[in-house]
Amino acid sequence: MGRPTKPDDHRPITTSQALIAFGLAAGLLTITPGLDTALVLRTAAAEGWRRAAATAIGIGLGCLAWGAAAAFGAGALLVASHAAYTILKWAGAAYLVWLGVAPLRKPRERFDTGAGAAAPSGGLVAALAKGFWNNLLNPKVGVFYVSFLPQFVPAGASPAAFGLLLAAIHVVMGLIWAGGLILATAPIAKALRKPGVVRWLDRATGGVFVAFGVRIALERR
Q: For the chain, does the N or the C end have fewer beta carbons within 10 angstroms?
């Protein structure tokens, strides 16, 4: 399993350092407008806070499913195979750099929340299912977790258990952010339509992803 290291001495970082680094990257990812943000805002504006909350929980369950698959599947593979570790390390580094370069080169001018969409039929279970399948059927989420989570597992920690912990932390962050979106649907939706706000979020997230990608590429097992 990949072990994040300090850039100056390549020694494995501690559990607290890994959690802080992951929290920074995952936090920026959470607040950067994307499909999940659009879905929650759209549902809150068109269908009410209860269905929006159910949708957010569904999104979180989808993330947790991807995180568990990455933690147990990728974790077992990386522990057993040095070649698999090397391949995933370079693939993860390249993917994170690719994620970061795009918004740095061309940050978005605005973010379309789709708040004017018509409300579909169905109850809270339907809203939860919508969020769950929206996330589970998005291959980008799976690729992100498989390439991202292993890089933050410190030396001596169980890859599966710690990877699942990281996924759970990301889910909690997502639920807190979704709660904020639901409570302030109109102001946040308005802010996300301002070019300066979206450009800043894209550039900040892009810079963090590029930095992590380079760090991962230079780390030692």
A: C
Domain ranges of the chain: 15-218
pTM score over 0.85: no
198-219 residue pLDDT tens: 777 777 767 877 876 787 677 6
Instruction: List CB contacts of 162: < 8 A, sequence separation 6 or more.
Output: 15, 18, 71, 152, 153, 154
For the chain, counts of helices (H) and of strands (E): 10, 0
